[in-house]
Amino acid sequence: MELNKIYHGHCLEVLKTLPSETVNTVVTSPPYWGLRVYGVDGQIGLENSVEEYVSALVEVFRQIKRILKALSKTGLKVRELKTPQDETDWNNRQIDILLAHPASAAYGLNLQQGGNHVVWFGLNWSLELYQQANKRLHRQGQTEKVIIHHLTVTGGVDEDVISALLDKSSTQDHLMNALKARIEKVKAE
Question: Cβ(60)–Cβ(44) under 8 Å?
Answer without folding.
Answer: yes
